Amino acid sequence: xxxxxxxxxxxxxxxxxxxxINLLVTAxxxxxxxxxxxxxxxxxxxxxxxxxxxxxxxxxxEYLYNNHKDPEGVLTNWRSALVRTESIGAAAKKxxxxxxxRLSRGEKKGSExxxxxxxxxxxxxxxxxxxxxxxxxxxxxxxxxxxxxxxxEILSKGTWLDPKSQLQEIVQxxxxxxxxxxxxxxxxxxxxxxxxVGVYVNGELLGQGMGPSKQAGQQQAAESALKxxxx
Length: 231
What we know:
Elements: H1 3-14, H2 21-27, H3 31-36, H4 46-67, H5 72-83, H6 85-94, H7 105-108, H8 112-134, H9 136-146, H10 151-157, H11 163-174, E1 180-187, E2 194-201, E3 204-211, H12 214-230
Antiparallel strand pairs: 1-2, 2-3
Helix pairs in contact: 1-2, 2-8, 4-5, 4-8, 4-9, 6-8, 8-9, 11-12
């Protein structure tokens, strides 16, 4: 895909022209692509992802702090719901990030779960690229339009509730213990790992979960354990 394709995407979808279009191209470049094109490609998107993650969290935190007077714990759960993999992956899909991803031939044939994680990572990398190229205010506008616009729906559906937090409250009140999470199995290559995580209460396994990250596995394990208490 040529440079002009990425510039058209910036103008038509993001609403501005990149000063340094290579930043945007890098934001869509997965590590696996670099491995197959070492002579022509010098950088993948993980550093931009690292930066974009921090900028995304700052913008969301600032919005919640300025617009809501709720306790810290509630604000933290709302923020987690807004910036979690599923939320930013959905935004990436909505904005048509998929066809712009630069992936290795093997990664293109990867699992749906792995692809969802790559999309979410690219979303954070694009935020990092926008921040470097356009500054904080333009980046804030993009995050407001793509992520914060979903907040009312998250509130109305109750999807901001964090299973780990719910489980901790229930276990501490009923058992007097704090749940402990342990990785049971770690499988797959570095770019497409799967973690099986167990949640234990007083040494007893209450639930298991799987995910592309330890955090995702923990959330699924907590959801599984919550069913034990619901039953």
